Design the sequence.
């Protein structure tokens, strides 16, 4: 879906239940979950979400504190839980400009105790930074265990240190003893509502840059905004990352009494240093501790063994092993100039003329890539224009039962499906069921007002009720809980199946629709069209458990976004291969049917992978090798096979470059590599149906076996820039014997199994796929 106004994507690695106050009493329940939840919106995004570590210690920076600064905690006051160095990150598309947020949930009752009755008012439990629109202040909210009324008058001073990546100071402000691990450029000290200071590394700033300071005891929070002009003066640009630290003190007590650090690393026991830093710099992910490869198969919760027939491992579409090719229809190929209404190929926000005839004309090209399923963007009649942007993408429906005039007509769509089937290919239709366009007749039909939600726009993207029941920036939001609406939508879906003979639906923005509807929808569609009809959902969320809940309710497949975030970090940004190996193992255990999840490198809502990778085509080749050999359905965005690049839209700067017209034959070397790795997948049953079993992981090398009763393939991925050498043991389940010669299908190199091991030496950023040489 494509919307010009604001979007907010959240990743919550740690969730905290809210505190509800009633009169003099309150109920506080805190629970911390080691999972990811990415909330709200399905819009173009410009960077990716990862957990953020504390930054590296800076050598030689120490500060000694008085021995009296000790922490004494009674058993009842020991920390209930702690979040460690995991940060919550979000990403935000505002006015076409990528903006960022960061949120961190900290431990409870882990503060330095002064026993003055206000300890809990200085106990930080979370901090959120939210960039917002360019015209808005950068907003910050710090939450406390129990912010008592009037605590700010003599008993609470709050400090926030902001790093803009431009050098800065490491001493704490206001003469408080201690140092920061990350130099800061701007510091804010909030003493009470009317008394505060703003500093930079050179001295005191004009206080007017601090906006809307509020001490809110009802919500246990202190909130304020910072005029972005002072940030821009220091070289920060809208959309740039920031890093921050925060701590509390008591008036006239020169001592840090709480920070975001872990209990064992609090400043009063860490030489005065603040070490934990929250950042919206999304290009780094911490590496887990070294671990040995497991000695047992890594299996999904559905369970399977390599000696069983894996064709039966899926309850739905068990025979689906095809790779999917995603063609954004308007940008793919113009096969019929007679429907080029309002075309302006110089403007990336307007129609470009691609149509259904264009996809028909290029079916042989797609098939030659080794891709047998084509996902096409919504074909329903769309709103032509909104805020000077055209509905070329298809996600603004005004008539669910007509083909958009820019794409062709119903007969042309039927022809596309028929010709695809003649070539042994499938067609998957993108279908938006969350909303309608602003000009849809439902919006102004007085008899259908109960078909829509009237709860305003989503304000809190972490609130599941709002995500499901509020509008996304004015788009009329369908009320699927209304039986008339759910029947209408399901009947409409059946209409497209019956009219065209399509093979599946790509389901848009599923997290904005109740799970109960998707359960009903999936059951009725599979009953109507058969269990082999693909339903592949788009839930832009990093929480594997959330994605699994849809699979548990008869949705065959989803795009594996948790895996996607890790891929970008590891392959695109030279991350640690242990992160990838551990994520694959975790997801394979979490999903009901991991083999039916779809791996992606990019799509119309993200930067193209090559842009993320800084133009390094070897990174793209390695990432493609991974998604073509891991136990997932690969989905390829048009043009990735020829090395297309492109950033997301930023108003006033660039259009949606990730949605440029297809660049035919842009890079023949990349195209040939893609065809090679795609052919290797398609022609080796182990890579389409084999169980995945990890063989090796370290910082640079990840190796796994794909094991099928009829074949075993061994995949080796080298994320280093230079050649690596390893002696990798075979799995105990392997039937490959000593003396067996294995051939790398990528290079033709051969190795011989000796003492149950293979000696491999892949080149930098290279993949190897070994099978028994015949």
Sequence:
């Amino acid at each position: 879906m494509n919307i010009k106004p604001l979007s907010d994507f959240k990743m919550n690695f740690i969730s905290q239940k809210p505190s509800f106050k009633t009169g003099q009493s309150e109920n506080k329940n805190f629970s911390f979950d080691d999972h990811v939840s990415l909330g709200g919106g399905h819009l173009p995004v410009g960077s990716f979400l990862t957990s953020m570590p504390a930054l590296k210690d800076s050598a030689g920076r120490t500060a000694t504190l008085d021995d009296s600064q000790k922490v004494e905690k009674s058993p009842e006051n020991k920390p209930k839980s702690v979040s460690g160095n995991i940060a919550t990150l979000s990403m935000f598309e505002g006015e076409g400009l990528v903006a960022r947020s960061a949120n961190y949930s900290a431990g409870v009752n882990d503060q330095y105790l002064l026993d003055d009755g206000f300890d809990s008012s200085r106990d930080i439990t979370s901090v959120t930074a939210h960039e917002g629109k360019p015209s808005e202040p950068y907003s910050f909210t710090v939450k406390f265990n129990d912010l008592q009324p009037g605590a700010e008058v003599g008993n609470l001073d709050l400090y926030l240190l902001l790093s803009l990546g431009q050098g800065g100071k490491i001493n704490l402000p206001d003469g408080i003893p201690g140092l920061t691990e990350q130099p800061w450029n701007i510091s804010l000290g909030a003493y009470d509502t009317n008394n505060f200071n703003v500093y930079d590394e050179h001295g005191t700033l004009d206080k007017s840059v601090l906006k809307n300071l509020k001490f809110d005891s009802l919500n246990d929070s202190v909130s304020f905004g910072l005029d972005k002009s002072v940030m821009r003066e220091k070289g920060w640009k809208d959309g740039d990352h920031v890093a921050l630290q925060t701590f509390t003190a008591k008036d006239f007590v020169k001592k840090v009494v709480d920070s975001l650090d872990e209990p064992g690393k609090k400043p009063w026991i860490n030489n005065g240093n603040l070490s934990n830093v929250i950042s919206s710099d999304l290009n780094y992910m911490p590496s887990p501790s070294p671990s040995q490869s497991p000695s047992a198969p890594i299996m999904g919760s559905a369970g399977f063994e390599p000696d069983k027939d894996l064709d039966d491992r899926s309850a739905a579409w068990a025979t689906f092993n095809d790779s999917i090719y995603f063609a954004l229809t308007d940008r793919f190929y113009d096969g019929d100039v007679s429907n080029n209404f309002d075309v302006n190929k110089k403007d990336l926000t307007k129609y470009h003329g691609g149509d259904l005839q264009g996809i028909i004309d290029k079916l042989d090209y797609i098939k030659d890539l080794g891709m047998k399923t084509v996902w096409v963007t919504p074909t329903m009649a769309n709103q032509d224009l909104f805020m000077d942007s055209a509905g070329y993408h298809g996600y603004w429906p005004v008539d669910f039962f007509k083909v958009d005039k820019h794409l062709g007509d119903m007969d042309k769509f039927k022809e596309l499906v028929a010709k695809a089937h003649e070539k042994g290919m499938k067609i998957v239709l993108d279908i938006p069921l969350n909303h309608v366009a602003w000009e849809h007749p439902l919006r102004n039909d007085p008899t259908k007002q109960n078909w829509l939600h009237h709860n305003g726009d989503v304000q809190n993207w972490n609130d599941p009720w709002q995500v499901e029941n509020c509008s996304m920036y004015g788009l009329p939001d369908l009320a699927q809980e209304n039986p008339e609406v759910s029947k209408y939508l399901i009947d409409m879906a059946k209409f497209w199946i019956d009219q065209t003979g399509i093979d599946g639906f790509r389901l848009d923005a599923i997290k904005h629709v109740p799970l109960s509807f998707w359960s009903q929808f999936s059951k009725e569609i599979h009953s109507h069209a058969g269990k082999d009809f693909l339903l592949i959902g788009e839930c832009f969320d990093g929480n594997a458990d959330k994605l699994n809940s849809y699979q548990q309710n008869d949705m065959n497949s989803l795009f594996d976004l948790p895996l996607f975030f890790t891929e970008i970090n590891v392959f695109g940004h030279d991350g640690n291969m242990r992160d990838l190996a551990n994520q694959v193992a975790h997801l394979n255990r979490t999903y009901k049917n991991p083999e039916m999840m779809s791996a992606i490198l990019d799509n119309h809502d993200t930067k193209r992978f090559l842009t993320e990778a800084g133009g390094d085509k070897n990174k793209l080749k390695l990432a493609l090798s991974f998604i073509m050999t891991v136990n997932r359905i690969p989905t390829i965005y048009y043009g990735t096979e020829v090395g297309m690049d492109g950033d997301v839209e930023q108003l006033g700067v660039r259009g949606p470059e990730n949605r440029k017209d297809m660049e035919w034959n842009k890079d023949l070397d990349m195209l040939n590599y893609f065809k090679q790795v795609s052919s290797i997948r398609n022609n080796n049953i182990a890579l389409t149906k084999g169980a995945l079993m990890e063989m090796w992981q370290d910082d640079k090398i990840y190796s796994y076996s794909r094991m099928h009763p009829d074949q075993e393939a061994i995949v080796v991925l080298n994320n280093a820039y230079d050649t690596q050498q390893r002696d990798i043991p075979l799995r105990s389940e392997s039937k490959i014997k000593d003396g067996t010669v294995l051939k790398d299908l990528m290079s033709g190199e051969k190795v011989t199994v000796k003492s149950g091991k293979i000696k491999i030496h892949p080149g930098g950023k290279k993949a190897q796929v070994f099978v028994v040489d015949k």
Remarks:
- The two ends are 48 Å apart (CA to CA).
- The chain has 15 helices and 40 strands.
- Residues 301 and 724 are 34 Å apart (CA to CA).
- Confidence is low (pLDDT under 50) at residues 1-98, 282-319.
